């Protein structure tokens, strides 16, 4: 029987759990949505005016729904017990160990969530994998659920519903997704009703043709594959940026020409200092691990090279800074504009700024960091021991005062509208700009007097 869902719980109130549940609450006023987490500070923040994550448009939706049909609580067991459908959106980080170059996903948090679901469930539940998990995780989860449930006759239907949102545009992505992918039993087997129940939730705002159903393993693998393909595009254009510098070609012109080919398309072709975020590297390493487990070493190596290219790009950027600045940056103040892994988010997980910052500090630089959304405490946590060589600033102009160089690490729009003449005035001379995101007007900067190095662009004589 297709259950018309009226109560949903989501385990994990993070970058995915919070925004996705806020969207369901907004679009489905008839459904009670409860988001739970083991972290009391995170739940307190969701219940306050200062949400734990920054995402354009999220505040308004949470404020509109909170207390009506959207709730945040640490009462994990209570919320599970009273819900018909349970999304699991816990973190699935990378393990430190692995077979070869690949690294398995750590499913500790997932297993713990599954054990809790099993222990408190007295009625049938539809379990929805929202976290990104290795292909065939549902098989293992089913065993955990069955072996830990003490109430006889309780039925668990497991679905895969990977999340494709991108941080910074999460609310737009959730409002009008390219597709919603639901993996489950779809070929006349027992359990097909669970797929229909989840389809019905999304059908409240997503057009039917964008809701795709697939078998469980295809859905699980599709998410890893999607992130691997996206990261591969970035590494591909970054590899071209190195070749452009070596040959006098311009990576923006190459990307434009490539993007005009309708088979390639223009998106995700911006050369940069490298990709970051909590997902791309983690998911590729996991994909490579799964390949290695199946003896597919060559396939694993293919995907591993995407991560290798990303590391190369970050190292190359540091080397360029050092070589341009007369081969020494010892005791020089270098300002990093931006620390988040991309614009419109405060998320710094795997941000290129971390590796580049550490590389510059290793070479003796003093770092000044300004980011409009990342807190000083977050930077201190990410940079650890390196913090003794770092000062963080609340104003860009103070961060740039007396700096020898500026490195653009995040593509924040505000950097483009700065008064670069004023900035030139407060910096040491010669003043260097290293544009790691290709967002500034390089000709204008050169007119002002800056020495400019932009990734993938002809090098200054
Ligand atoms: P996150 O770290 O921001 O949030 C996960 C939350 O789960 C944390 O707050 C943690 O305290 C909580 N948690 C862990 N174990 C728990 C338990 N047993 N009970 C209750 N709460 C528990 O992670 P995220 O960025 O939201 O990512 C979640 C998943 O979604 C990951 O698998 C990730 O790969 C995937 N994903 C992330 C993004 C993204 O842009 N961040 C996009 C798509 C998919």
Which helices and strands appear, and what pairs or packs with what?
Layout: E1 7-11, H1 17-27, E2 32-36, H2 40-46, H3 58-65, E3 70-73, H4 76-81, E4 85-88, H5 108-120, E5 125-129, H6 137-148, E6 156-160, H7 170-175, E7 180-183, H8 192-202, E8 211-214, H9 216-247, H10 251-259, H11 280-293, H12 297-324, E9 333-337, H13 352-362, E10 366-370, H14 376-383, E11 390-392, H15 396-400, E12 405-408, H16 420-426, E13 432-435, H17 442-448, E14 451-454
Parallel strand pairs: 1-2, 1-4, 2-3, 4-5, 5-6, 7-8, 9-10, 9-12, 10-11, 12-13, 13-14
The protein binds nicotinamide-adenine-dinucleotide.
Residues 11-17, 36-39, 42, 76, 89-92, 109, 112-113, 131-132, 163, 165, 167, 278-279 line the site of nicotinamide-adenine-dinucleotide.
Keywords: NAD, Oxidoreductase
GO molecular function: NAD binding; UDP-glucose 6-dehydrogenase activity
Family: Belongs to the UDP-glucose/GDP-mannose dehydrogenase family.
What does it look like?
The protein has 461 residues and is α/β, with parallel strands linked by helices. The protein folds into two domains: 7-214, NAD(P)-binding Rossmann-like Domain (Rossmann fold), CATH 3.40.50; 247-461, 3-Layer(aba) Sandwich (Rossmann fold), CATH 3.40.50. The chain contains 17 helices and 14 strands. Strands 3-2-1-4-5-6 form a six-stranded parallel beta sheet, sandwiched between helices. Helix 1 packs across helix 3, helix 9 packs parallel to helix 12 and helix 11 packs antiparallel against helix 12. The longest helix is centred in the middle third of the chain and has 32 residues, at 216-247. The chain starts with 6 loop residues before the first strand and ends in a 7-residue tail after the last strand. The model has no long low-confidence stretch (mean pLDDT 96). Nicotinamide-adenine-dinucleotide (NAD) binds next to helix 5.
């Amino acid at each position: 029987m297709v259950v018309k869902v009226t109560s949903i719980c989501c385990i994990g109130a993070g970058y995915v759990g919070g925004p996705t549940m806020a969207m369901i609450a907004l679009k489905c006023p008839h459904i009670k949505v409860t988001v739970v987490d083991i972290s009391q500070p995170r739940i307190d923040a969701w219940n306050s005016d200062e949400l734990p994550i920054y995402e354009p448009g999220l505040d308004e939706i949470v404020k509109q729904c909170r207390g009506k049909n959207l709730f945040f609580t640490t009462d994990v067991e209570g919320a599970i017990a009273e819900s018909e459908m349970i999304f699991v959106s816990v973190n699935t980080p990378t393990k430190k160990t692995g077979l070869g170059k690949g690294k398995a996903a750590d499913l500790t948090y997932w297993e713990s969530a599954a054990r809790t679901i099993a222990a408190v469930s007295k009625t049938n539940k539809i379990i929805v994998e929202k976290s990104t998990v290795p292909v065939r995780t549902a098989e293992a989860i089913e065993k955990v659920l069955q072996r830990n449930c003490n109430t006889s006759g309780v039925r668990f239907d497991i679905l895969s519903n990977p999340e494709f949102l991108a941080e910074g545009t999460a609310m737009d992505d959730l409002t009008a997704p390219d597709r919603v992918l639901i993996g489950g039993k779809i070929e006349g087997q027992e359990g097909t009703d669970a797929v229909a129940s989840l389809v019905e939730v999304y059908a409240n705002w997503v057009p039917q043709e964008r809701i795709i159903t697939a078998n469980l393993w295809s859905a699980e693998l599709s998410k890893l594959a999607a992130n691997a393909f996206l990261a591969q595009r970035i590494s591909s254009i970054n590899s071209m940026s190195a070749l452009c510098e070596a040959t006098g070609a311009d990576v923006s012109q190459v990307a434009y020409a490539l993007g005009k080919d309708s088979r390639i398309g223009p998106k995700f072709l911006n050369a940069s200092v490298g990709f970051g975020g909590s997902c791309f590297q983690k998911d590729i390493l996991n994909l490579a691990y799964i390949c290695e487990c199946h003896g597919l070493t060559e396939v694993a190596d293919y995907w591993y090279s995407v991560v290798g290219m990303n590391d190369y790009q970050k190292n190359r950027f540091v080397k360029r800074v050092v070589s341009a600045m007369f081969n020494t940056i010892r005791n020089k103040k270098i300002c990093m504009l931006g620390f988040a892994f991309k614009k419109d988010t405060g998320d710094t997980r795997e941000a290129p700024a971390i590796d580049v910052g550490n590389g510059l500090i290793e070479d003796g630089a003093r770092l000044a960091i300004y980011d409009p959304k990342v807190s000083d405490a977050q930077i201190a946590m990410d940079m650890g021991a390196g913090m003794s060589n770092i000062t963080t600033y609340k104003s860009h102009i103070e961060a740039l005062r007396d700096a020898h160089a500026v490195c653009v690490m995040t593509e924040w729009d505000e950097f483009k509208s700065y008064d670069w003449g004023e900035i030139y005035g407060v910096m040491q001379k010669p003043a260097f700009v290293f544009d790691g995101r290709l967002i500034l007007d390089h000709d204008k900067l050169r007119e002002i007097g800056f020495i400019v190095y932009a990734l993938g662009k002809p090098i200054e004589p």
